[in-house]
Structure formats: structure tokens, C-alpha cells
Amino acid sequence: MKLEVRGIEEGKPVPEKYAFGVFSEEDHMSFGPNRNPEMVWDDAPAGTKSFVVIVFDPDVPSVADDVNQEGKTVPADLERVDFFHWLLVDIPATTHRIPEGEDSDGVIPKGKNPGPGPIGIRGVNNYTQFLAGNPDMAGTYGGYDGPCPPWNDSIIHHYHYEVHALDVETLNLDGEFDGPAVREAMAGHVLASARVTGTYTLNPDLR
């Protein structure tokens, strides 16, 4: 199976228009355009009955104590965990394209609703947990919300844009399901997968 994420080249920086946070000299970070990129895929195997889209960052600090703190740096050797930025399930087998901006166009404080969206069914991304302590932003973040790694992280983050062809029409997920729930439901049903990986950083020393 082939996947093209238009505007994102393999191994190259993700353009700011797809980011939740962009670099700011005054405040380290300001909100970005936060548009989902266009994704186009083909050559799905025979027997494909639905698709799943997953976007995640495997480089997120497992401990947030030093994240975005003045005078501190997130060390490179800190254990890292997956942070899910986009979960779409039950995408019809006849769909092979998600237009740019279809699922997200701008940062929406308190998030977008999970559940049925423009294409497929939206899961809940990890901004739901990350922003839970911010009274202006706390909420349930469904659908796509783009890169915004810690501005004081000592490593560049990688963003995996994936599409998976499944042998079932539905994963029978509803409510506020998350990344691990999607992976568990997909297990044993994946016929083929494709991935494009971009990078992103808000650390001025790494840009």
C-alpha cells in the first residue's frame, strides 16, 4: 500500500501550517494553523473493508516535570512514550483521500468532539490529558491536533502518519476511545499499512 502526505516529505520537517504550536521568540510557542494535512493512499489489498488513520509522536517525555520550564532542559535520555495526534477509524473502503483541513482547521480551545466526523469516526488524542490542567484549554480533543513538542526538549520529535487497511468494516469503538484502544481493536485485522514520517521541534537550538 502507498501513502502520500502532501506537504510532508519523509524525514523532513512538518510545515508549520500543520502544527498546533509554532515557534515564537517572545513566548517560545504560539498557536499554529493546526490544519490536518492531505492524505492520499492507494494499492490497498483485496479484502479491505475499512481504513484506520493514526498519527503519533513516539518521542514525548514520559515525565513532564521539566517540560516547558524556564531554565530547564528535557534530557535526551529520558524515557519516551507515544502521544497520539489523530485517530480515525471505520473509514469506508471506498475512501482513499482526506483533504487538507477537512478534520481540523485551527486550534479550538477545549477541543473538538470525538465520534462521527467528516470522514470516519474520531478518537480522542492526547491533548485531552496534556491540557487537562489548563482552565482555558481543558476539554476533550477529538480528531486531529498537530505537533507541539516541548520547546525545551533536547531532541527533535518524529511524527508518524499512518494508514492501515483492515479486513473488518468497523472496530466497534465508540465514546472517548484512545490510541491504545484503537491498536488493541486493530490487532489481527491489519491487511497492509503505510507510513510517512516528518520531524518537528520548537527548540531554537535545533531548528
From TrEMBL:
Q: Which residue ranges have biased composition labelled Low complexity?
A: 106-119
Q: What's the superkingdom here?
A: Bacteria
**Cited InterPro entries:** PEBP, PEBP-like_sf, YbhB_YbcL/LppC-like
Q: Which Pfam families match?
A: PBP
Renumbered to this chain, region (Disordered) spans 98-119
Give the matching NCBIfam families: YbhB/YbcL family Raf kinase inhibitor-like protein
Q: Which PANTHER family match?
A: PEBP (PHOSPHATIDYLETHANOLAMINE-BINDING PROTEIN) FAMILY PROTEIN (PTHR30289:SF1), UNCHARACTERIZED PROTEIN YBCL-RELATED (PTHR30289)
Q: What is this protein called?
A: YbhB/YbcL family Raf kinase inhibitor-like protein
